[in-house]
Amino acid sequence: MSVSFLSRPDLPNLAYKRLKGKSPGIIFIPGYISNMNGTKALAIEDFCKSLGHAYIRFDYSGVGNSDGNFQECTVGRWRKDVLSIIDDVAVGPQILVGSSLGGWLMLHAAIARPQKVVALIGVATAVDSLVTQFNQLPVEVKKEIEMKGVWSMPSKYSEEGVYHVQYSFIKEAEHHCLLHSPIPVSCPIRLLHGMRDDLIPWHTSVQVADRVVSTDVDVILRKHSDHRMKEKEDIQLLVYTIDDLIDKLSTEVN
């Protein structure tokens, strides 16, 4: 599949790849600084091809092949990106698969588009994560970050060993926090999390399960998986989960 671009007036063009097929379609929402070519995104594409289901993967503005300046990106802007893909590229009902930060954004999309989003699958769901982690820092460290305007956050998932997160990004993200009150999402939700995740504690998925108003929620913990959840068994669990939800939704329709 070649890369297509969604043109948007006043907003950066978004790069995406789309597989046409049956409903419900699947949309993969990547993690922080991740693009549409990751292991999970490609594995889901292969699975959707084999089933004949529609599938979309895309790059956030400022990331990968999409236009935009990464330094100007915010959770709010990326939320708009997800909604643009749902509104202007996707056809019919959609299952959203959100990885890490994408798990936070999938909940926002489900709140904003309840008619179109029929199920959610979170992988190491990072709801409120950067804000929570920042708030846990000592006061003097927070003040220093505010002065510098940048938080150099250690991470083994970055080539440099740190992510340089803008202070303005964290402050803007505060407006999108969800765990402080009930989350008005009522569709089926599956939350997969590795118990060896050293970036986003697996308790976050349990908190999400507790906060959403949906009664059809499963949290599935893998004892030896880390944050990325991209080993063979992790991918297998992910595609089984998608398959199971497709079956469930098809049965409900019929």
What does this protein structure show overall?
- By secondary structure, the protein is α/β, with parallel strands linked by helices.
- The protein has helices spanning 39-51, 75-88, 101-112, 129-135, 139-148, 167-173, 203-211, 232-253; strands at 4-8, 11-19, 22-29, 53-58, 94-99, 117-123, 150-154, 162-166, 189-194, 217-222.
- The protein has an 8-stranded mixed sheet, with helices on both faces. Strands 7-8 form a two-stranded antiparallel ribbon.
- The two termini are 32 Å apart.
- 41% of the residues are buried.
- The mean pLDDT is 95.
Put the structure in a nutshell.
The protein is an alpha/beta fold.
Kindly state the percentage of residues in helix.
25-40%
- Please, how many helices? 8
Mean pLDDT: 95
Report the end-to-end length measured between terminal Cα atoms.
Answer: 32 Å
Instruction: Note the beta-strand portion.
Output: 15-25%
> Can you tell me the overall shape?
globular
DSSP summary, beta strand count = 10
Q: Numbering strands along the chain, what is their spatial order in the largest sheet?
A: 1-2-4-3-5-6-9-10
The helix/strand class is: alpha/beta
Indicate the low-confidence ranges by residue numbers: none
Largest sheet: 8 strands, mixed
N-to-C series of helices and strands: EEEHEHEHEHHEEHEHEH
Radius of gyration: 17 Å
Keywords: Hydrolase
Domain Serine aminopeptidase S33: 26-130
Family: Belongs to the AB hydrolase superfamily.
Protein name: Mycophenolic acid acyl-glucuronide esterase, mitochondrial isoform X2
